[in-house]
Amino acid sequence: MDTNDLPGNVLDPNCPSRVVFQRIGDKWASLVIQVLGDGPVRFSELRKMVNVVTPKVLTQTLRALERDGLITRTVYAQVPPRVEYELTALGESLLQPLTMLRQWAESHVPTILEARDAYDDAQDEALLRSPN
Amino acid sequence: MDTNDLPGNVLDPNCPSRVVFQRIGDKWASLVIQVLGDGPVRFSELRKMVNVVTPKVLTQTLRALERDGLITRTVYAQVPPRVEYELTALGESLLQPLTMLRQWAESHVPTILEARDAYDDAQDEALLRSPN
DNA sequence: CAGTATCCCTCGAGATACTG
DNA sequence: CAGTATCTCGAGGGATACTG
């Protein structure tokens, strides 16, 4: 890694800081993190809360988060098996920026949706004027 | 939109607030936004700064951002053509949470990288102990 | 319960070439 | 200069079925 620490390196798609953005954009990862923000959750609970994700995909997501040191996986030796996932300190520290983002989202999404409608309408109109 | 405004709706993958997370995670969108944070930029400049993205992909990205009302596209009628992209007020307001995220990333990515190494090493070791 | 093992299949990024 | 038009290819998400 020979990239310097200037803010400019965010422009490099290979900059390691991109991994964070990738996780945020991941379909399930950010959801899982938010859920775990309230405390440890079991695999099957997670599946339900996060709205019927397939076990394979959920496992992939959880493994990735565990690998990044954002969550821990604890197996309780008992039958039936019981596995709990929990945020690490690192994971919890991500909660803050995540919340900020969510707040921005909640307050601005209506505007975005309006912008989309307006854009799409303008598109349609343009099509009507110059039919191909 | 019949979803309530409880924080819990973030768990719904169809929740509109997800569009924000998608943009953040988009390979180029967040980069473009950060670049435009310093002022209007032309298409070709954008291409260079963002590290040789193909014109098709850059166009897609820009159109999406424009549709969401995050940037504007201004065509100057002259030869050769000149098109500038610029953040809207909405787009600028996104700069703040984006910066927070970037700061988190810059200060925690080393930890994440270490966690990955540790995880991968543990995996390798486990493989050695129980060869398939 | 908490996964793993397969197969499928779409979608998005990239390469390449062409145009107003 | 600022795009558009095709094609390809691989990764990731999902469905389904099976296991310790």
From TrEMBL, chains A, B:
Domain HTH hxlR-type, by residue range, is 15-113
Does the keyword Transcription feature in the UniProt annotation? yes
The record's annotation in Gene3D superfamilies points to: Winged helix-like DNA-binding domain superfamily/Winged helix DNA-binding domain (1.10.10.10)
Q: Which Pfam families does the UniProt entry name for this protein? A: HxlR (PF01638)
Which keywords accompany this UniProt record? DNA-binding, Transcription, Transcription regulation
Any one GO MF annotation of this record: DNA binding
What protein name applies here? DNA-binding HxlR family transcriptional regulator
